[in-house]
């Protein structure tokens, strides 16, 4: 028997409505909470839907329609119940229960409709796919089958229904490409792909959907669906497999299993296909990768929204104007972000008018692009343009409540800037630095009010990466910290509180890995070997490609900072210095630059790819244990959250500590696990 003691049951409520001369059964999914707690399906919810379908069918209406509570259709299986599945048999039982209930809509002799009024994800979209027809509201926030991203597969019919509805290219996009790139379908896209049959505006969505359904039942409207081309099926999946292998190198079991199910959908009966889904899903649910993925999902969905150790929000000061020191690319990205999210005046300064003008022009160009993409209307765009200005005179910061600097990583330069600005701004102005590795405490040391200096470390590109490391210096006070977190929340960033320690979290760990990589290169390991060494982990980028993205000079600078702080663990690399001095790109056309390969060739003790990878993992485990012992963050969960949101570490690893635990690296290197047994892995 499946048990989920904490399930918030989504009830399926039946009412009968008159549409013209027809009686329709309308089933509304509603868990009794507002949109902040979405509908989902656990055992109780599936049982309620089963009973509702029976009640609706027994009344013999003209049609049966399924919809959701305001803003939410259904976001799928209640994944909080997965840890309660103690055996594979229970996982199979849950899969079969969902299949049996949903199939009643597909096999109904009474026409069935899904009125997708809001977010429909995973099992929520799958139950809609079982209905004979679908409408979607233009206000539906997101549609998709994101299961692969959390180590699972669409397990309630999606892998079989979708490709036979819209074709395998579209299905591969929804089931594989979108989850792995963290994308969802918007309502218009869903209609264009054929996932939904009709789009209606939110204001009168239900009324229009009921009228449309009645017209379909009457034969006044015929839903046209193009025939699915099965000739290209194998070719599409072969290409998809190549892309997966190139990107993930076989490290994500759920992706390969989803491909197998898509292949099966071409010729298998629906019953055989869904039976295979159940078996695959049960295997994945009982695997460590899915447990790690669900752990990562919980971090991103819950812990990221409730940062640990933050002072009371009532201490936060109101921010009515933002100043930005610098007008380069990072500063200009920040200006656009602050203007869009805070809707307050933002002013950039730099050493000459040409730089200031270039920074403001960048912001204007980006706003114009948003208008062209229809992500902003012209009225909102005009307002944003009016909020952003520039000056060479820092006196424009006199009435700013929040000033952030984004200049070159030089401690003396930053100290000089703050000394100058402190004489201009009010005593309550927050002074934030976007430094990636320098000490906040040292930066504030010579100021009259060091308590209002805080680290505010963004990740590039600013608009894309959600992490914000907020660093508390030794003198940073609670009001400053509370203001920083309040601003981070308004910016829609996931903020993590970090102690003032060299390079903070993400850069410190990535630099430790880079240090191990270059020690291997210095020992004579060829660049292509070290570049492929981490492939079995399925990381978002290979080491040399990451070096190209960060920039060898930046990597060398951060490495120097950490070498000075921890010379026993962060070695200096002559080969990295050679690359910086030569000014050569390390990658050319997505391949390692042969000139760079020649430049660093040599060394008497080359390592194998396996040896490079294990040394890197050992170094990660050692550094994380030291960081936790130093109190750089509150818990290992914060390390994982930072690596997921700031470095793109994948869900199937759970960030990094679950992988180090289950591979035995944590205990071998540090003597103990990072997480309790059963967290992000199967119980022992």
From TrEMBL:
Keyword annotations: Fatty acid metabolism, Lipid degradation, Lipid metabolism, Lyase, Multifunctional enzyme, NAD, Oxidoreductase
Superkingdom of origin: Bacteria
Pathway membership: Lipid metabolism; fatty acid beta-oxidation; Lipid metabolism; butanoate metabolism
Domain 3-hydroxyacyl-CoA dehydrogenase NAD binding: 321-500
One GO MF term: enoyl-CoA hydratase activity
CDD domains: crotonase-like (cd06558)
Organism in which the protein naturally occurs: Paractinoplanes brasiliensis
Protein name as it appears in the record: 3-hydroxyacyl-CoA dehydrogenase
Coiled-coil regions, chain positions: none
Alphabetical GO biological process terms: fatty acid beta-oxidation
Lyase found in the keyword field: yes
Catalytic activity of the protein: a (3S)-3-hydroxyacyl-CoA + NAD(+) = a 3-oxoacyl-CoA + NADH + H(+)
Similarity-based family: Belongs to the 3-hydroxyacyl-CoA dehydrogenase family.
Domain (3-hydroxyacyl-CoA dehydrogenase C-terminal): residue spans on this chain: 504-583
């Amino acid at each position: 028997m499946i048990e989920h003691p904490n399930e918030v049951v989504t009830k399926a409520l039946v009412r009968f409505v008159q549409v013209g001369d027809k009686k329709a059964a309308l089933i509304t999914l509603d868990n009794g909470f507002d949109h902040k707690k979405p509908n989902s399906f656990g055992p109780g919810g599936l049982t309620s839907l089963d009973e509702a379908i029976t009640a609706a069918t027994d009344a013999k209406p003209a049609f049966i329609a399924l919809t959701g509570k305001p803003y939410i259709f259904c976001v799928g299986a209640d994944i909080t119940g997965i840890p309660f599945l103690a055996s594979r048999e229970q996982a199979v039982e849950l899969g079969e229960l969902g299949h049996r209930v949903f199939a009643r809509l597909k096999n109904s002799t009474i026409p069935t409709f899904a009125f997708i009024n809001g977010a429909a994800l995973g099992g929520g979209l799958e139950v809609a796919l079982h209905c004979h027809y679908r409408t979607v509201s233009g206000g539906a926030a997101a549609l998709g089958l994101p299961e692969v991203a959390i180590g699972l597969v669409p397990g309630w019919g999606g892998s079989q229904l979708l490709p036979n509805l819209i074709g395998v290219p579209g299905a591969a996009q929804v089931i594989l490409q979108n989850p792995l790139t963290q994308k969802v379908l918007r309502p218009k896209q869903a209609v264009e792909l054929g996932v939904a049959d009709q789009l209606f505006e939110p204001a009168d969505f239900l009324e229009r959907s009921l009228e449309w359904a009645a017209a379909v039942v009457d034969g006044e409207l015929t839903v046209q669906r193009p025939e699915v081309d099965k000739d290209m099926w194998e070719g599409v999946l072969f290409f998809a497999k190549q892309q997966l292998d190139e990107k993930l190198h076989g490290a994500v079991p759920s992706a390969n299993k989803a491909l197998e199910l898509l292949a099966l959908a071409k010729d298998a009966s629906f019953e055989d296909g869904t039976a295979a889904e159940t078996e695959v899903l049960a295997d994945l649910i009982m695997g460590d990768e899915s447990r790690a993925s669900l752990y990562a999902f919980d971090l991103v969905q819950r812990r990221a929204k409730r940062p640990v150790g933050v002072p009371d929000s009532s201490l936060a000061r109101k921010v009515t104007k933002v100043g930005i020191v610098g007008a380069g690319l990072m500063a200009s990205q920040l200006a656009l972000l602050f203007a869009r999210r805070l809707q307050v005046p933002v002013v950039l300064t730099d050493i000459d008018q040409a730089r200031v003008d270039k920074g403001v022009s960048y912001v204007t160009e980006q706003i114009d692009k948003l208008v062209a993409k229809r992500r902003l209307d012209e009225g909102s765009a005009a307002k944003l343009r009016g909020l952003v200005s520039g000056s060479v005179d820092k006196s424009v910061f006199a009435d700013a409540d929040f000033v952030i600097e984004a200049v070159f990583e030089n401690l003396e330069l930053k100290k000089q800037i703050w000394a100058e600005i402190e004489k201009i701004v009010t005593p309550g102005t927050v002074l934030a630095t976007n430094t990636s590795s320098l000490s906040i405490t040292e930066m504030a040391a010579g100021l009259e009010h060091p308590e209002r200096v805080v680290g505010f470390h963004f990740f590039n590109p600013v608009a894309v990466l959600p992490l914000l490391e907020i660093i508390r210096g030794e003198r940073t006070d609670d009001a400053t910290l509370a203001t920083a977190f309040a601003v981070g929340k308004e910016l829609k960033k996931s903020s993590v509180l970090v102690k003032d320690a060299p390079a903070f979290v993400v850069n410190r760990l990535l630099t430790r890995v880079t240090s191990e990589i270059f020690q291997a290169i210095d020992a004579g390991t060829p660049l292509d070997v070290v570049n492929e060494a981490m492939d079995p982990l399925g990381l978002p980028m290979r080491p040399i490609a990451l070096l190209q993205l960060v920039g060898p000079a930046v990597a060398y600078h951060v490495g120097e900072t950490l070498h000075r702080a921890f010379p026993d663990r962060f070695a200096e690399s002559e080969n990295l210095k050679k690359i910086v001095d030569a000014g050569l790109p390390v990658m050319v056309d997505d391949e390692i630059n042969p000139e760079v390969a020649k430049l660093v060739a040599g060394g008497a003790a080359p390592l194998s790819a396996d040896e490079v990878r294990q040394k890197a993992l050992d170094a990660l485990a050692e550094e994380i244990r030291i960081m936790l012992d130093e109190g750089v963050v509150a818990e290992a969960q914060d390390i994982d959250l930072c690596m997921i949101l700031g470095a793109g570490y994948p869900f199937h690893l759970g960030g990094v500590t679950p992988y180090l635990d289950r591979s035995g690296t944590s205990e071998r290197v540090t003597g103990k696990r990072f997480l309790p047994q059963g967290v992000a892995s199967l119980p022992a």
